[in-house]
Design goal:
Helix 1 packs parallel to helix 2. The model is unreliable at 1-16 (pLDDT under 50). It is built from 4 helices and no strands. By secondary structure, it is an all-alpha fold. The longest helix is centred in the first third of the chain and has 25 residues, at 12-36.
Length: 105
């Protein structure tokens, strides 16, 4: 997955413990790409490592059509999060539902 998370600097014993979940994620991401033909896309905002792994495992059981619906939702969430960070005002005459959602979040 694409994420801005990085392992903190720590002694090697702590790093080995922290790498374990990510080695699982990397293996599952390889399985995901082999199954669907594209990389795993997830909006990690507000999600724990355990939730990310659980969702990844769940998505591996879906059909390509079902997964693409989730990919669209995840991508939409990522874009909306980034727009909020940039404090981009809604576009006049744009989609009213999206403008209202952006303002209310």
């Amino acid at each position: 997955p694409t994420t801005s998370r990085a392992l903190p600097e720590a002694d090697p014993g702590v790093l080995r413990e922290q790498e374990q979940p990510w080695s699982t994620v990397l293996r599952l991401c390889e399985d995901y790409k082999a199954r669907f033909g594209y990389i795993y896309l997830v909006n990690v905002s507000g999600k724990t490592d355990e939730t990310i792994v659980s969702e990844l495992k769940s998505r591996l059981t879906l059909s390509p059509h079902e997964d693409l619906k989730i990919v669209q939702e995840e991508l939409h969430g990522i874009v909306m999060d980034r727009l909020r960070l940039l404090a981009v005002p809604p576009i006049e005459g744009g989609n009213d539902l999206e403008s209202e959602k952006l303002q209310s979040d």
